[in-house]
Amino acid sequence: MESTRAFDGKVALVTGAAGTLGGTVVTAFHRAGATLALTDRDGDKLRAAHGAARWSRACDLADGEAVVAMVDAAAAALGRLDFLVNCHGAYRGGTPLHETPLAEWDAIVDANARSVFHTCRAAVPHLLRSGGGRIVNVGARAALAGSAGSAIYTAAKSAVVRLTESLAAELRERGVGVNCVLPGTIDTAANRGSRPGADFTKWVPPEAIADVILFLCSDAARAVHGAAIPVYGLS
Question: CA 143, CA 114: separation in Å to the nearest integer?
């Protein structure tokens, strides 16, 4: 999407804003004129990445009460809420299901699924008070099929898709569009470091994912509800 001022007067809350994808999404919304409310679990990284942000707060998105307080504070400080973009997430894999400790289940489900439930639940009343808006959740290509060694991650990302579809069905007649994107392997420094022999040209750039997210928040996507859009790059 071109860097226009299409979102002047709109407020976007971006979770996982200190991460590579989250930071890219923040930049894209800023260029489009939106006012940003930013959150991430790591307050130090959040301040380092976005020290001049209009509003930011560290928050553990697995804590439902903390999420409600954070979203309420953002909406109160900025006067409204129009967009929620959930970039928060985490990946761990390589362990067979029967060898996976319960703590790992909790950590991955908290990061990828419970966080989406909490933020959506807290944000929807504010979107409705603003007269409508958009929610975009970041799922993953892995949501579409299970794979060996990634049972928890694929289950958690599958839950994101189902939550997105259900919320879209509940809100589409009330002026709120809810969709998700399904990235393939994202071209980040961390991923390059963990897979040095891969063909990075086939991975999806974070900017390409941000473009799709901005489209889903735009008026051009007003008829799109409950979609899970693949953003795979060339892989």
Answer: 15
Helices and strands of the chain, counted as H and E runs: 8, 7
- For each of the chain's 235 residues, which pLDDT tens digit applies? 444 789 999 999 999 999 999 999 999 999 999 999 999 999 999 999 998 788 999 999 999 999 999 999 999 999 999 999 999 999 988 899 999 999 999 999 999 999 999 999 999 999 999 999 999 999 999 999 999 999 999 999 999 999 999 999 999 999 999 999 999 999 999 999 999 999 999 999 999 999 999 999 999 999 999 999 999 999 8
Residue type, 12: A
Positions marked active-site: 153
- Write down how long the chain is: 235
Distance from C-alpha of 112 to C-alpha of 134, rounded to nearest angstrom: 19
Any idea where the domains of the chain sit in the sequence?
A: 11-231
**Sequence-distant (≥ 6) Cβ neighbours of residue 9 within 8 angstroms:** 33, 35
User: What's the CA gap between 189 and 177, in Å, rounded?
Assistant: 32
Closest alpha carbon to 177 in 123, 131, 208, 223? 223
Q: Using CA atoms, how far apart are residues 227 and 177, in angstroms rounded to an integer?
A: 10
Torsion of CA 110, 155, 72, 82, to 10 degrees: 150
The CATH class, in words, for 11-231 is alpha beta
